[in-house]
């Protein structure tokens, strides 16, 4: 995923406009970057494992008449970077071509790189060689590609550049007589561009032509590998424990006696069941149709959908487009812990539904460094109440959604939060009793937050390593989640009943949604942290978030208790590949971490 930008001019590229475009593109990723520059009669290709502003400072764009570039969020590797050069073409690409391996089998050309973007110039070049124009070749590519494809392809010899997209994440306009492009509408509007068009069908433009071969310069080599090669080991996997425990469980749901603040009545029914109020009882859909009517903008985007690539946000997007009849833009906050399968599903859904996806990417290196410090502190004094600090970095999701609303001019915010995804135990292990009257997954009570922070501070004192550079990031993220006012904000599953079977069937069959290789459930497979914290919860307390989720389904009448018991036995099994990936990207030794968890004090006897 990346932010694409560019200017080509009759005279020189205005440096101020170029700086404005590249600064905004960095919002979408800063792991690596690239530029294509035409000056002094030749094209130069520049690539770096640096943020785009640093690369721009190292690249001479003065007297240039053509500059296009990208600021990239690394998804599936750093071995090859963009711009990709292949068969006389230069390509930039935002998105993931999820079927690129299958597309290679249709070509005579052989694959040379690991990056999925290579399929774009290879495919187009073969079709151009067969007598097609650049535009027709790009159209053919869009017909066969799956996943988000928003691309710029340059033929430097012919002096032609083609723009194309299957989800609308590319815009073209004119400013000061110059052509300007961006992955988003906002930066073009901000600079005062005119005749702005959202690119979907391929469109080509004449640019500088030269028979001189492009020069290539690699500007830096990253010292930290953001996508380490996943090497699995049976000896490592054998360290993972998974014992079936003889714990007392509620006779109605499946919660065990180790659940914080649990108690049982004379019939063995737990207080969580006795105090439960049905959550999955949607209101009349007509109410939502009436609510959104004032937000509709015919022919324009009219809803903003927070989009993680998980099953609930994916199904909510399906409903918003196909049932509610809205034209949404999705927003994704990538903090470095979205798994490859999560990104691929995000890409598939956006492409299939033709929906623009705006990404705000954190500084992945910094975010992972924060997690590393907190995990190191946790391992010195394992405390189940402190596990949630490992996911605190994603709470800035709530901060940036207000920014995106302002940039797009869209007020309506439609969420796809699972109404049964309530995990009282995560704060419960810290000493916070459950609030059985809570109506939302996220509580906004100031007193509850202050009590939580006080208890967490006490737990942090047991391992001072928690007092590190991540603290402000954690606290500010939680502030935006819990205290900021949220206007024009509605939940899809307040009006559509959440039905797991229907959701899974729709996503898997209609959209070719991918499942993880290490679990049967479709829940949490896009979250790189889930396997770790669930292993810790089960090993030390004998249950995971799957037990609380399945218990809610039992209370709603969606599952029998026996079905829930069978499912949690399967879903609580350790997910070795996901665990291994998590520890590798954070730089931890797998055996050392697993042994530390296995030897920690249990909640049960």
Automatic annotation (TrEMBL):
Q: Which domain of life is it from?
A: Bacteria
For this chain, one GO molecular function annotation is:
glutamine-fructose-6-phosphate transaminase (isomerizing) activity
Residue stretches making up the Glutamine amidotransferase type-2 domain: 2-210
Give EC number(s), comma-separated: 2.6.1.16
The biological process GO terms on file are: fructose 6-phosphate metabolic process; protein N-linked glycosylation; UDP-N-acetylglucosamine metabolic process
The UniProt record lists the keyword Transferase? yes
Xref: InterPro entries: GATase_2_dom (IPR017932), Ntn_hydrolases_N (IPR029055), Rossmann-like_a/b/a_fold (IPR014729)
Q: Which reaction does it catalyse?
A: D-fructose 6-phosphate + L-glutamine = D-glucosamine 6-phosphate + L-glutamate
Q: Which PANTHER family match?
A: GLUCOSAMINE--FRUCTOSE-6-PHOSPHATE AMINOTRANSFERASE, ISOMERIZING (PTHR10937), GLUTAMINE--FRUCTOSE-6-PHOSPHATE TRANSAMINASE (ISOMERIZING) (PTHR10937:SF0)
**Name of this chain's protein:** Glutamine--fructose-6-phosphate aminotransferase [isomerizing]
